[in-house]
Design a protein that fits this description.
Blueprint lengths: L13 H15 L6 H8 L13 H24 L6 H13 L6 H11 L3 H24 L4 H20 L6 H16 L5 H10 L6
Helix pairs in contact: 1-2, 1-3, 3-4, 3-6, 4-8, 5-6, 6-7
Length: 209
């Protein structure tokens, strides 16, 4: 809930400051995430920042926490989503790549760029990578694959998508959807049924031209 101050009228909110910091990170990198420019962007006093964060470092850590919760949490959750076949399970994972509410690729790129400047953030990224890979590997194991095979398929799945993100590859929805069946076959060694593909397309609001 937003709160009033005598000095500025509004203190804003913790989420509002985080949203502004996130936008700055995406637009110009971590060096642009500074208190005074954010305050000006929000139309708030600089002092109102300190109602929600001790300092800039706490704000930066909150950004990392938001990334971790959304991207790692979203991907891990999808590995546990109900699926009767490996193809269906992989389509659940593909939901992440098409729905930024589950996995924010722009934030992923920004955090990985930040990691090039910071050993601490680099360690956070390595930890997230391992957690995500472990979740993907366990997903494959649940479908009867050996630990080695599951590990290779998990790495292939994950590294392909991270490659998409770090190379800032852009695909329109038509191109991505046309490629999905072949990706499923390559990544799982199985073929998605027409019904599975139709359910996947429907939940992303896609209808073939």
């Amino acid at each position: 809930m937003e709160e009033m101050t005598n000095e500025s009228g509004w203190r804003g909110s913790r989420e509002g400051w985080l949203d502004a910091a996130s936008e700055a990170l995406l637009e110009a990198g971590v060096d642009s995430v500074k208190i005074l420019p954010l305050a000006k962007k929000l139309g708030l006093s600089r002092t109102s920042f300190y109602w929600f964060f001790r300092d800039r470092e706490e704000l930066l850590q909150a950004l990392v926490g938001r990334w971790r919760e959304k991207n790692t949490g979203g991907l891990v959750q999808q590995t546990l989503a109900p699926a009767l076949t490996p193809a269906e399970a992989m389509l659940n994972i593909c939901d992440c790549w098409l729905d930024s509410r589950m996995f924010d690729s722009k934030m992923e790129f920004a955090i990985r760029s930040w990691a090039l400047q910071s050993d601490d953030i680099s360690a956070d990224v390595r930890k997230a990578d391992q957690e995500r890979l472990d979740a993907l590997r366990q997903m494959f194991v649940r479908f009867g694959l050996s630990e080695v095979n599951a590990d290779v398929r998990a790495r292939t799945t994950y590294l392909v998508q991270i490659g998409y993100i770090t190379m800032q590859t852009e695909e329109d929805i038509e191109t991505r959807m046309q490629r999905i069946p072949d990706y499923i076959e390559v990544l799982t060694g199985t073929t998605a049924t027409q019904a599975e593909l139709q359910r996947f397309a429907a939940r992303h609001g896609y209808r073939p031209a």
